[in-house]
Write a structure and sequence with these properties.
Length: about 325
């Protein structure tokens, strides 16, 4: 049986405390007696303080707020509420569940759509099924519907191990801890602080689809890697490329990692593979995908080496007749 707001107020009254206006006021009130930190968090990361007051059944205010913790939700979020989609007026566990259902191959193309996260107005408590305006605490049973709550993104999540935070530059919530990321205003996205002074800026770097799986990167929940060229790609997609011996950016063809060891092996391979005499004087023009230089080099069936940066990541642009 859940402890409603009225019940909590009566408990406070019986102890001789002033009556708070709402359950939210009771939770936020800073009493002079000993208090304990609850895990309820807002988008600003502040912890609410709750009085450890017990009702007749021995239930504390904190325990009442945390009823059903980590017991509800979907594969995307652990939360104690569902949302009513403003676009189609249907109820879903989260926006990802909505998008998966409404963009499946079983839905006619003209009816496919994504849920606009910032426009969500109504949520349904998973414990008492009360529909209400977006808020962190249920107006009926008083339960906290999400330990992490962002009023801007309408995001609820009980799993705070993700270290969620709201990025005002991106306009959405991110995970990983705000202290570990910075917002690059030229790239228009958040990057690890390790890349703050070393990443090449590409305008709108993540405001496009992954070049491998075509998922929109800016709102992707999967890890994203920033390549040496500044382009972005899913980490899993990059690993899959490397498993198939693909080491060039799908967008600009620059090497995605340090290939110096590979170039050394190609040097040995070319030295061990002499061309027939008829090809000794055959010259071709190449364009280096890494540095962009044009070079005229001797043709070899294995690969052509850039004279400027010594890379073998080159392409032949035109040839010349042998002399």
């Amino acid at each position: 049986m859940y402890l409603a707001e009225e019940g909590l107020v009566n408990v406070i009254k019986s102890l001789g405390c002033d009556e708070p206006e709402t359950l939210q006021d009771m939770i936020n009130k800073d009493y002079e007696t000993d208090t304990t930190d609850s895990c309820s968090q807002h988008s600003n990361g502040d912890c609410l303080l709750t009085e450890e007051v017990r009702d007749g059944a021995g239930t504390t205010a904190t325990e009442a707020l945390e009823k059903g913790l980590m017991q509800y939700g979907c594969s995307h979020y652990r939360r104690r509420c569902r949302i009513r989609a403003p676009c189609c007026n249907e109820i879903f566990d989260c926006r990802h569940c909505h998008n998966e259902a409404k963009n499946s191959i079983n839905v006619k193309r003209k009816h496919r759509h994504d849920l606009p996260r910032h426009q969500v107005q109504q949520v349904i408590c998973s414990l008492c099924d009360t529909e209400q305006e977006v808020r962190q605490f249920c107006i009926n049973c008083g339960v906290c519907m999400g330990k992490y709550f962002c009023e801007t993104c309408k995001l609820f999540d009980d799993d705070t191990s993700k270290q969620q935070y709201h990025c005002h530059g991106c306009g959405i919530c991110r995970i990983g801890g705000q202290e570990n990321f910075f917002h690059c205003y030229k790239c228009g996205c958040c990057y690890s602080v390790l890349l703050k002074n070393s990443h090449p800026c590409v305008e709108g770097a993540m405001h496009h689809d992954c070049p491998v799986c075509f998922e929109y990167l800016f709102e992707s929940t999967d890890d994203v890697s920033v390549l040496r060229c500044g382009h972005t790609i899913h980490m899993n997609c990059l690993k899959e490329m490397q498993q198939h011996l693909q080491y060039a950016c799908p967008l600009c063809s620059k090497s995605v990692c340090d290939m110096s060891k590979v170039w050394e092996k190609l040097d040995m391979e070319i030295a061990a593979t002499p061309m027939p005499e008829s090809y000794h004087n055959k010259m071709v023009w190449i364009l280096c995908n890494d540095c962009g230089a044009n070079s005229e080099v001797q043709f070899h069936v294995v690969a052509q080496k850039c004279l400027n940066c010594k890379s073998y990541n080159t392409r032949q642009t035109r040839g010349t007749t042998s002399t």
